[in-house]
Amino acid sequence: MRAMRAETFSGYEGLKLVDLPKPAVSDGRVLLRMTAAGVTPLDQTILSGKFPHHLKAPLVLGNEGAGVVEEGGGTVFPAGSRVMFFGPYGAFEDGTYSEWLAVRKEDLCLIPDNIDDVSLAPAIGGSIGNAVTQLARALGAKHAMSSTTNHAKAEQAKALGFNEVIDTSLEKLGDGVRRITGGYGADIVIDGIGGEVLSEALGALALEGTLITLGYSASRKTTIDVTNLIVPQASIRGFNMFAQPQAAVTGAWNVIVSLLKSGAIKPIVAKTFPLVEAAAALRYLVEGRPFGRVILTI
Length: 298
Hints:
2 domains, 26% helix
């Protein structure tokens, strides 16, 4: 089978097209014919050798994707079922940038019939910012805010119905939050950007608000004003997607699938690339900073 594998963790040039044996079905694993793989900042972090855990090359990248069950799914995921998943793939074992993958059964979720095969806060154009904003809005948040540093993206977001996007080329993040909320602030911030954005978002928290950090696409390091925690009695905590209990993952999938079926949330795809252009897809994601997801079609 064809796969795009990081032969070295040295940047785009380390990603090569290789031919590998088709994986075998084993206990607890389901063989999938991959149809799509999500391209994420995590892939670039790993490819550039900046992942905080020690990983070994060569490694097939990609931690999320969609596919069709070939074998091993039993009655829950019969052959031919369309499924989506995420997990430690592409980091701690070979991932989704391949034609076939043996996936843990507990990681799988059936794709609703009305959804195409695509994978599924600050940064409205990014995967975390966009998904969190849509979920917050669908689940009844009084305000579902996001931000962008790009005025064109702010206008694009408004055209798509995102009416509480703060254009930080025109105003500071905290000022925008207070303007939208009438001075109240944000009860919760989900940040996948890190760096200066995290510091600014911390200053936008409401009384006893919480900032959850789960990514660092801008920077791992930041400087905070501790009074932004002390005065409002706010808190900050980390979130590791790979460390969540299975019950929490299953519960999240159930909510997401229900919202997808109802049309309350919709995946936004900026551009698709064929598998062999995985390096170009990553470069487009990192350097082009598109509005929406970048997907490999397989």
